[in-house]
Each structure stands twice: as C-alpha cells, then as structure tokens.
Design brief:
Blueprint: H1 3-8, H2 11-17, H3 27-32, E1 33-35, E2 41-43, E3 46-47, E4 61-71, E5 76-88, H4 103-115, E6 127-128, E7 132-134, E8 140-153
Parallel strand pairs: 3-4
Antiparallel strand pairs: 1-2, 4-5, 5-8, 6-8, 7-8
Length: 157
C-alpha cells in the first residue's frame, strides 16, 4: 500500500501542493523532503506522519497522513487512514476546470478520487468518513480526511 506514491504521481495534486516549485531541486524531493548540498534538511509537503512543521517560511500546502488498526473482533480489525490537508489562507483561492471550491475542496476531491477506487491498494475498499475542519496553526486551514477499511484481516499471533 503506497498512498504517498499515488499522491506524488498525480500531477493535479502536485500542482496544488507545489504552486511554485524550485527548478533547481527534484520535484519528488520537494514533495517528500530532502537534505540539500550543505546538509540542511528541508521538510516536504507530503508526509507519512501527522506533522505540522514548527516553522513555515513560505505559504505552503501540506498533506500529512498516518494509519492505525483497531480491533473489530478477536481476529478482525478495521484499518483507519487519517489524512490532514491544510494550506495557508493566502493560497486558499484556486481554480481548476471541472472543480469548484477552494484549494482544500479541490485537493480533498482529488484525494478522495484516489482513495475510493475499489481494491486499489490490494487491501479492500476504503470507505470515506465525514471530513472534519482542521486548524493546525495560525493562518492555516484544512480538513482531516478519514478512510476506513472494514474487516481488515490482521491476525494476532
């Protein structure tokens, strides 16, 4: 299951989260993070954990995600995928043909279109739950998206 790979290979998502990419750095590195030639660490904007950077120098858009498994029965669990999407308020306005709403509304739709494809990740259907508003830091706004894979078979030994 590589949800992040699906996000970084979707050009519509890439354009939404990297509105002004650095032409001197690899796009994938800018998306997932990299260490520059001087040894400085640059956080990406698509992260495999629920994280809000301590300092954000430029207005940015982020996708952060994590997964958990909760018992449903003694031998069956539900897999939960949590995806936080958020952007700086100055970036909220965004237009894309065929889509309506803010940058966050469009990003949520693009992510949902990936996540709900039946058996895309080989573990069953991802069922979306109601998105929740997310306010991680001052001047940033977005949503927490939750997806559930029910009857995820994970046997305890």
């Amino acid at each position: 299951m590589d949800i992040i790979h699906e996000f970084i290979t979707n050009q519509d998502i890439v354009k939404l989260v990297l509105s002004d990419p650095d032409p001197t750095e690899d796009i994938v590195d800018q998306l997932v993070g990299y260490t520059d030639k001087n040894g400085g660490r640059h956080d990406g904007v698509i992260l495999p954990f629920l994280y809000v950077p301590n300092r954000i120098d430029n207005a940015s858009t982020f996708i952060c995600m994590d997964t958990t498994i909760r018992d449903s029965t003694a031998t069956v669990q539900n897999l939960y995928v949590y995806i936080n999407i958020f952007t700086e308020k100055s970036l909220m306005k965004y237009e894309k043909d065929g889509y309506y709403g803010t940058r966050m509304d469009i990003l949520m739709t693009l992510i949902n279109n990936i996540m709900i494809v039946p058996n895309k990740f080989g573990i069953g259907a991802f069922i979306p739950k109601e998105p929740r508003p997310y306010y991680p830091i001052q001047n940033y706004y977005g949503y927490t998206l939750t997806y559930v894979v029910p009857d995820f078979k994970w046997y305890k030994r």
